[in-house]
Amino acid sequence: MARDQVVSARYAVGVGARSEFGAEDLSALVRETALRFDVALAGATLAALKSHENVAGFAQAAEQLGMRLALFSAEELPRAGLLTHSQRIERLYGVGSLAEALALAAAGEGASLLAPRVATLRLTCAVAKGGHR
Q1: How far, rounded to the nearest angstrom, does the alpha carbon of residue 81 sit from its chain's CA centroid?
Q2: Residue 2: pLDDT above 80?
Q3: By the 8 A CB rule, do 23 and 64 touch?
Q4: Lower CB count within 10 Å: N or C terminus of the chain?
Q5: CA atoms of 30 and 45, how far apart (whole Å)
Q6: Does domain 18-129 have CATH number 3.30.420.180?
Q7: Is the pTM of this model over 0.70?
Q8: What is the pLDDT of residue 5?
Q9: CA dist., res. 23 & res. 116, Å (int)
Q10: What pLDDT is stored for residue 77 in this prediction?
């Protein structure tokens, strides 16, 4: 996404991936996380890192979930408002949690995280609620 494009969603789900993953695994994690926080995925945005080598996997998962896909560069991610911190992710992307930063970026100005990210061996997932304008 270009910086001049406004991204805003009632709910946004940010996802980070360590390595190759299946769209089905990603979809299952997003559904499970949405259920945990009572979030309807209809009209929500799935956010991923633009430079990830498996962008097609994110696109396929977004289609399976009926979500819009938003891609961000590391430079576009917010540095504040994160609930967890990984030194490894900080070194790689400049943020403490990639999934949390992606969720906040996609939810737009004034967004807040519902809870710290959820992590599996290969994926992380966080949900943000858009701010009121």
Answers
A1: 14
A2: no
A3: yes
A4: C
A5: 11
A6: yes
A7: yes
A8: 41
A9: 22
A10: 96
**Taking 70 as the threshold, does the pLDDT of residue 3 lie above it?**
no
Q: Which two tokens stand for residue 2?
A: 């270009």
Total number of residues shown for the chain: 133
- Domain residue limits, the chain: 18-129
Q: Judge contact between 115 and 107, C-beta under 8 A.
A: no
Residue 5 CA to its chain's centroid (Å): 17
Summarize the chain as % helix, strand, coil (round to 5).
Answer: 35, 20, 45
Q: What is the DSSP letter of 94?
A: S
Using CA atoms, how far apart are residues 18 and 61, in angstroms rounded to an integer? 16
Helical pair 55-65 and 23-36, crossing angle rounded to 10 deg: 50
The predicted pLDDT at position 6 comes to 43
Angstrom distance (rounded) from CA 45 to CA 99? 13
Q: How far apart are CA 45 and CA 105, in angstroms?
A: 10
The residue type at 104: L
Instruction: Return d(Cα 35, Cα 43) in angstroms, integer.
Output: 15
